[in-house]
Design goal:
The protein has 409 residues and is of the alpha/beta class. It contains 14 helices and 16 strands. The strands form 5 sheets. Strands 11-15-12-14-13-16 form a 6-stranded mixed β-barrel. The chain has a 3-stranded parallel beta sheet with strand order 5-6-7, with no helix packed on it. A 3-stranded antiparallel beta sheet has the order 8-9-10.
Length: 409
């Protein structure tokens, strides 16, 4: 079964297919949880009841694959769905998160979160950090005067392009650590450290199912390129903080020591195939504690996205696989770079007087994006989709509200 706002190539293989408006994930999952719990709710669709029945009859092998992009409110509703289905502790069943970026699970387990330390340990109030939007706002307000961008150009990678442009203009110092010099970094960075490409890195990554795997160097570092951890260690030392990392093995030892459910893990144990840390006997107690902290059966009433006015559509975004600076600098890949296109339903195209392939303008609060219309029968009526991560000013991250106006150019 597939439930999503935007169509995908998986749709033809689905026993059931469910579409909801962009931003309605929490509403959809709340209704699904209520159906699984046997709660009567007015206006429940037959499709929701059918999906609940399919999941109940799924046996021992129900696996729910979900996207990190659904947000915390929808994730809480999904946790309730999983609890009602009794997926916890069942071999061959469970929930599998697809992170928005590579090694997302590994980064979180190592403590790359504003609210948790290594091992997902909650931080006390005085130690809480800021997430990316809060960092941008603090820099724009002058509260932060220096920014370190590690592996990102926020003008193309993060939501609210205008806020990040203000933040980078306002910061007195912008240090970037990047393998490709994008236009945003070229314009705003005071210092740029050349970073490793994926083929030059050594370390570990964690698969979404908890499998810790080794990442090995495939090609040597060119010129002055150093490992990311080595640059951070050198900067820390210059700032008077010695983190005592001289080799990648030191970094791995620090990681294992800091994350309770990695305790005792060795490079030899990881080997060539990796090891799922939740299956390690020594990690069982720590894994159960993480699960207990993460899963809640509390219900809530999801409000849903804003309703469009006449002439408006709900906006959804996605990132094309080829919307990447690697394609932009490679002569062999340049033909794959996507242009901005607006995906919309045939019924919406008809009342807007737009045909497939027409040039259109997407407007919101004075911001305009030019795109080419792409009419798709499987896009839900009342919704439209634009691409993120596109170089220049036509990326969807220039828009910050859930509703858009569309006009034929």
């Amino acid at each position: 079964a597939i439930a999503s706002a935007r169509p995908s190539t998986l749709d033809p293989n689905a026993a059931q297919l469910h579409r909801y408006a962009p931003g309605s994930e929490a509403v959809f999952l709340t209704e699904l949880a209520a159906a699984l719990a046997g709660e009567d709710r007015p206006g429940r669709t037959e499709a929701i009841s059918d999906l609940a029945g399919l999941l109940r009859d799924g046996g021992e092998d129900v696996v729910i694959v979900w996207s990190e992009r659904i947000g915390s409110e929808a994730a809480a509703a999904l946790a309730r769905v999983a609890a009602l289905l009794g997926l916890d502790g069942r071999d061959g069943a469970g929930v599998l998160e697809i992170p928005s970026g590579a090694n997302g699970r590994g980064l979180r387990e190592a403590g790359v979160r504003p609210d948790c330390g290594p091992g997902l340990a909650p931080l006390p109030g005085e130690a809480l950090g800021r997430d990316a939007p809060a960092i941008a706002q603090a820099a724009a307000d002058g509260e932060l005067t220096a920014l370190y961008l590690f592996g990102t150009d926020p003008i193309r990678d993060q939501p609210d392009r205008a806020l990040w442009e203000t933040a980078l203009h306002s910061a007195a110092l912008v240090v970037a650590h990047a393998s490709i010099l994008t236009e945003g970094l070229r314009e705003h960075a005071s210092v740029i450290f050349p970073a490793e490409s994926y083929a030059e890195k050594e370390g570990t990554v964690v698969h979404p199912d908890g499998r810790l795997q080794r990442q090995r160097i495939a090609i040597a570092h060119p010129d002055e390129v150093r490992s990311g951890w080595a640059v951070v260690a050198a900067l820390a030392s210059r700032a008077g903080v010695d983190i005592d990392a001289r080799h990648s093995t030191d970094v791995f030892a620090d990681l294992v020591a800091a994350v309770p459910f990695y305790e005792g893990l060795t490079v030899d144990e990881i080997g060539g195939r990796g090891v799922r840390w939740p299956e390690r006997e020594s990690a069982a107690a720590a894994a159960n504690q993480v699960a207990d902290d993460a899963v809640s059966e509390e219900s809530f009433a999801a409000a849903g996205p804003a309703l469009p006015n006449e002439g408006e559509l709900r906006l959804g975004t996605y990132r094309p696989i080829w919307a990447a600076p690697e394609c932009e600098i490679s002569p062999a890949l340049k033909f794959l770079i996507p242009d901005q296109q607006l995906e919309l339903a045939p019924s919406d195209a008809d009342w807007l007087g737009i045909a497939h392939g027409d040039e259109v303008t997407v407007a919101q609060n004075g911001t305009r994006i030019n795109a080419k219309a792409f009419v798709r029968s499987s896009v839900p009526a009342g919704s439209a989709f634009l691409a993120d991560g596109i170089e220049g000013e036509q990326s969807a991250n220039a828009l910050t509200e859930p509703l858009i106006e569309v006009h034929k150019a």
